[in-house]
Amino acid sequence: MPQESERVLGVGQFRVEIDGIVVAGFASCSGLSVSTEVMIWAEGGDNGRVHRLPVRSRVENLVLRRGYAGGDELWRWREELLRGDRPIKRRSLSLVLCGDDGAEVTRWNCAGVWPVRWDGPTLQAGAAEVAIELLELAVDRVERR
Length: 145
What we know:
CATH architecture: Roll
Structural class: mainly beta
CATH topology: Pnp Oxidase, Chain A
CATH superfamily: Hcp1-like
């Protein structure tokens, strides 16, 4: 039997917290990714190999999608940037993965978060689909806790 630390978790139970407040209703989150640029260095006189050295790391943008519920808090945050408010209001965001019982299993804390894109729902008369709101966020730093 696998130990608790080896148990594979589903992705369906998660919550998003912005500045410590749970923002409910997100259907999906993508882009939780950190990569490191690699520099290839061929050392003179050592023709048998090349060195691979880390240069800088990059955090990808997070993309959150949720059913549109009529609230405007995400739009107002994006609107601050559109108005040219400076400095840009960067916030903290946590993605919290929960177990089947709803208890927190792990958390990714994101710092320096600000909205780079907001997409409203696609509107089509007669359609019976859920109106989806998209928020894309730039992230400075991610830590796993």
